[in-house]
Design a protein that fits this description.
The chain is an alpha/beta fold. 39% of the residues lie in helices and 16% in strands. It contains 9 helices and 12 strands.
Length: 295
Amino acid sequence: MRVAVLGPQGSLGIHLCEELRLAGHDVDAIDRTVCDLATPDRESLYRLRDRFASGDCQLVVNTAAFTDVDGAEQKTDEAFLVNALGAELVARAADEAGAAICHLSTDFVFDGESTRPYDEFDEPRPLSAYARSKLAGERLVGKAAARSFIVRVGGLYGRRGRNFVSTLVSRLKAGQPLRIDRERWTSPTWNRLLARQLITLCERGEHGVYHATCQGSTTWFGFAEALCDEAAALGRDLPRTFVGVTTQELTAPAMRPRSSLLDCRMLRLRGLLKLPPWREALRAYLTELLIQGEL
């Protein structure tokens, strides 16, 4: 299968391109020099459509996004341009070229007040400008493409990631003092395993809305504790230069859900769920870092 990947230089995009090639698929990596989703005009639409068509792409995966959750509170129009109109443009280009679209969304579309993990049939209630822009993207993609996979993810980390979780090992190795949230619940998810899950889903061709995170739950403080425990088990002791604090103590412009737990009900019901418990994934991630000399 020929697969176009937008956002190939991001952490998920890097892992996805690697895993697609390992699975025997051809990859067309499309970065911002080819298409900048911050300018979703007709010229960009035609350029993308023609590239998908000329390359005979059967699938387009859009991992590109405006991901600055706090920055979106001030740059709201930019967030909506990329996450909503830009996402729509990619979906339209894919549809007109005869390709299916896999669009990545977020656990932040929910308000986090549920006493159980959210499944695909729960009504989104976004709290922030970022979350509203991602929900808008979901809806526009669903209307623009006849064949779409809309996949909500959360708690992502991995090689070359720029978020806090992805940089945690290097921060701890440097002895950086950290204050980590001990109240917000999440399911930390390694990008390599998420990439494999996306491939399994898209190869099957069951279009729709899906949740995809590793199984189980923890707080970000609990994740940091587990990371140090697992690193020690691999013979690499990391300084525990962090303390747990309340969400309120970590003041930020954008509201975040108290609980970001997703129930991967649709993957499970279709027999497609491949993502393991989050701690098993963490162990595999650290083993990879150890082999690469980065732990």
